[in-house]
Amino acid sequence: MENCPEQPPLFTFGVIADIQYADLDDGYNFTRTRRRYYRSSLQLLRNARESWLESAVKPEFILQLGDIIDGFNKGHDASDRALDTVLAEFSSGPAEVHHVWGNHEFYNFSRSALLRSRLNSTLHIDRTVNAAPADRDIYAYSFSPFPGFTFVILDGYDVSLLGREESSPLYKDSLSLIRQHNSNEDLNCPVFEGLEQRFTMFNGGYSKVQLDWLESVLTSADENKEKVTIVSHLPVHPRSTTPICLAWNYDELLSIIRSHLCVVCFMAGHDHDGGYHKDKDTGVHHLTLKGVIETPPDSNAFGTVSVYEDRMELRGSGRVKDRVFLFPSRLQDTDQRAT
Question: 11-332 belongs to which homologous superfamily?
């Protein structure tokens, strides 16, 4: 008897993080303990693009999880040139790209410039989005690639010292917050005390305005019995990353996620080593994708995710492992409602 053919996915999408391209020789991280492959990161992006182009099922979209070019570009007056180079690779790919903003975006560009740029995906995709309040310069939105599924892109540097004018109240509030936890003269140096390490200048957080907007998106998704994947540059579960890469107010965002039935997965970058944790209380999967920038030229760091009614399957390449994300069983109970 012939085997039944494998069930095709509802849709697929690609994921890649921390490309940090620069036309520079290899270097090292801040502590000079980790090699960074600035120039060859472009070839690894090409490898990902070619894989997605050759897939039997083409991705519906690509998630670029932030830090698309390296901050060193700014000092070489190469920010625009480097961004053009990387975006040219994406533009010849198979699908629209949803760009997330990380700290290196703000090392290269102001927030106002980013909002006008090709890294503001809401300006350049042929898809209806639900954006955060227009009266604030928050880069957050949601979209639905397939009936019953919603993706939410969050702005992890809405509350931050990066991308804000030093004279602005938002900058001053962020400085006051970080100074409560970090007394170092150089705010990029962490205080090495457990989760307090997250209060550095290269991290940020989520404002009440953004969190309230997220609440409204998730409440609607609960009512419509949708499955939601949240995406941000900064991880929000302490067991999915090293503490030095956590969002400042990760606990507030985790609390919101845990109060809604619809969330199935949270995807992030920032931590180049990557990480994974399944929240035991909710069954939500927290994936931190390994970074391209610290991936040797003879390897890879990207993935393709196939989405089914009951799960997502990540097929990784190189440093990115294969994983299966079963959707929480609580989603099958149609009598449950979010509290």
Answer: Metallo-dependent phosphatases (3.60.21.10)
